[in-house]
Structure formats: structure tokens, C-alpha cells
Amino acid sequence: MSSLLSAWFARTGGPLPLSVDIATLRALHLQHNCAIPFENIDVVLPREIQLDDQSVADKLIDARRGGYCFEQNGLFERVLREVGFKVRSLLGRVILANPPQMPPRTHRLLLVELAGERWIADVGFGGQTLTAPIRLVAREEQATPHGLYRLLNEGEDWILQFRHHEQWQSMYRFDLATVWFTDFVMGNFWSAHWPQSHFRHHLLMCRHLPDGGKLTLTNFHFTHWQGAQVVEQSNLPDAAALYALMQERFGTGVEDAKHGFTLAELTAVMAGFETHPQAGK
User: Fold this and answer.
1) Given 3-state DSSP classes, what are the helix, strand and coil percentages for the chain, each rounded to the nearest 5?
2) More confident residue, 273 or 253
3) InterPro entries recorded for this chain (predicted)?
4) Residues designated catalytic
5) Whole-model pTM?
6) SS3 letters for 69-104?
7) In contact, 270 and 246? CB cutoff 8 Å
8) DSSP of 234-256
9) What are phi and psi of 175, to 5 degrees?
10) For residue range 6-53, what is the model confidence (pLDDT) as tens digits?
11) CB 123 within 8 A of CB 29
């Protein structure tokens, strides 16, 4: 087993039997979702997010932090390739909020080719991210441990949707064109620096749970979901409570010399955030 896989398994809860098959792909996907939280802490601190292999591994594995799509799916792509999967990254346009104009390509996802079929894997879309790969086929409802998804096909574009309150909600659209590392650098810079980027104005975290539940955090508002039901929620009173919850419930590392952060740093950046935002999923 490679050093990367050994370190990834140490971070995510231990090794699995490894074969290049769909059962292994599903198991690896869920294990990543449940161990490495989605978060944008570096954007709000603010710190530059580096996408080279070493920086991503140092942060998400060694420092026990999380990250967003460019980091999460970058790391997961490397893990899958080390196991032996044929995998490459794609770029999508986020349309979850029904933007008035077509947005830029700011979401990284993965295409896996396996036994003559193509699968979409994605461990980096926050609260609604896939927790299992889905087949690249149109209009087929596909179950994951955390909900129903489907893909629509419009010419060369595909649209990923999830089932929400008995309705289909579009998440992002993408094509299968080749993308390059510089494309990720551009999308990452836009996501972290564009003045209207939601990553700049909200602290966001999500960790999926093996039982089908998930934990979400929007600024100071914490929610534990079980499917569409809220089983626990709270408005945290201050940055100290937020700092503790990040570590205790999301498993966030805070002590690394480079990628950690202090309570004082968190308190300073959270001073401008709402303490009681509307709950979101």
C-alpha cells in the first residue's frame, strides 16, 4: 500500500479490502465523506488555498482539516488512482441558487470509468454532495446513503439533481471535456476571492454520518439532520462554542503549525458574522 493510501486510511478510519470494483468505490466514497469535513475556514480566515498534491495532503490528512471541492476531490482522485481506478476530474457550474446568468466553472467533480460504465463521484459539494458514486445515465433515480439523485442530459451537458421535499433541485451542470490543473487554480481563486462568493460571507461546514445523517454548520447555526428531519439544532453563543464544536463534532484539527488556527483567530473573523442565521440544508 502506498504512503498516500496508508495516510488517507489513518485519517478516515482504517483500511478496507481493495479491489477495482463498484463495491470498493462506494465504500471509499462514503468513508471519505464521513471522515473529512467540507469546510471553507481558510477562505474566511483568510488564507490562500494551495492545490498542489503536497499542500492538499498536508492539510486534509496530516493536519486533520477539511476543505472544499478543489481540495476534497483533488485528494480523492489521487486516492482512487492509487487503488487502480481510471479517474479524472471535471469542472461544473453551480446552479443551486438559480443564478440569473450562467456562472463560471467553479466546482470540481470526478469521472470514473469502470467495467465499461462511467460513474460520477463527488465528495466536495457540502451538505448535498454525493455520498456514493452514481452512473452517468440520464433520468435514472439513483439512491445514495444520504438521498436520491439523478442526472439530466442536455446536448453535451449533464445536470446533477437531488430530491428535496418531493421536488428535483438542480445542483450543477458539467460536461466531460478535459480540464487542466490551471483550470482548478482559476476556479479556486474565483471561489475564494470574488467579492460575491458565498464562501467569503459564510462559514460553512458539513460532515456526513454512516447512519445516513449529517452535521451542518452555517456561521453559528449547527444542525444534525437525519434525512429531511432535524434531530438537533442550536445557535452557538460565541466563537468559543463554535471552536469547540468544530473539533468535537466535525473532527477538525486546529493545532497544526501551518494549517491549524487559534480561538483568537476564529473570534476575530467571526465578529462580522451573524450569530443567528436562518437554518439551511
Assistant:
1) 30, 30, 40
2) 253
3) Arylamine_N-AcTrfase (IPR001447), Papain-like_cys_pep_sf (IPR038765)
4) 69, 107, 122
5) 0.95
6) HHHHHHHHHHHHHHHCCEEEEEEEEECCCCCCCCCC
7) no
8) EE--SHHHHHHHHHHTT------
9) -125, -175
10) 999 999 998 888 999 999 999 999 999 999 999 999 999 999 999 999
11) yes
Retrieve residue 206's grid coordinates.
Answer: 458539513
Grid cell in block for residue 276: 443567528
| Residue 281, pLDDT score | 34
Is cis: bond before 37, omega within 30 of 0?
no
Which residue's entry shows cell 442550536?
A: 234
Residue 24 identity: T
Among 61-65, 95-99, 102-106, 249-253, the range scoring the smallest mean pLDDT is 95-99
The three cell numbers locating residue 85: 481506478
Domain boundaries in the chain? 3-194
Please list, in sequence order, all residues whose beta carbon lies within 8 angstroms of the beta carbon of residue 212, skipping any fewer than 6 positions away.
Answer: 145, 146, 226, 227
